[in-house]
Amino acid sequence: MSPTKWANTPIEPYDYIKKKIKKSPQSIDISQSIHQIGINCIHALHDFQKVQLTSLVPNKQYFSYFDGQRKSRAVNPDLLIGDDEIDLFLNALA
Predict the structure, then answer these.
(1) Which of 24, 40, 49, 74 has a beta carbon 3.0–4.6 Å from 10's, enabling a disulfide?
(2) Structure pTM?
(3) 37 touches 14 (CB < 8 A)
(4) Are residues 1 and 43 in the same domain?
(5) How far apart are alpha carbons 42 and 80 in whole angstroms?
(6) By C-alpha distance, which of 57, 89, 60 is closest to 77?
């Protein structure tokens, strides 16, 4: 298989999903690939630095992920589960 634009990224299985879903959308391979993307992304974000952002909206907090070169979009922490839950999830999969 030739390299894709997602090669060596947390969402590398995406191209496989795009191909496979047309033939067999309920395949266990699709579910496993989506699951793998989630795990890959959690691991990637776990290594990034969280940078607190200043909000001009009262009572709103935001942060972004920073990898030393790039910064993510603003993230509202009220919409995420905590680090403890993520660690429990990762340990359960190990």
Answers:
(1) 40
(2) 0.63
(3) yes
(4) yes
(5) 12
(6) 60
Q: Would you mind telling me the total number of residues written for the chain in this entry?
A: 94
pLDDT tens per residue, range 32-81: 888 888 888 888 888 889 999 998 989 899 999 998 898 889 988 888 77
**Amino acid at residue number 70:** R
DSSP 38-68: HHHHHHHHHTSEEEEE--SSTT--EEEEE-S
Q: Given a cut of 80, is residue 18 above it in pLDDT?
A: yes
Residues 6+ apart with CB under 8 A from 77: 61, 62, 63
Q: Please give the backbone phi and psi of residue 16, each rounded to the nearest 5 degrees, phi first.
A: -60, -45
Q: How far apart are CA 76 and CA 78, in angstroms?
A: 5
Residue 90 forms part of a structural domain: no
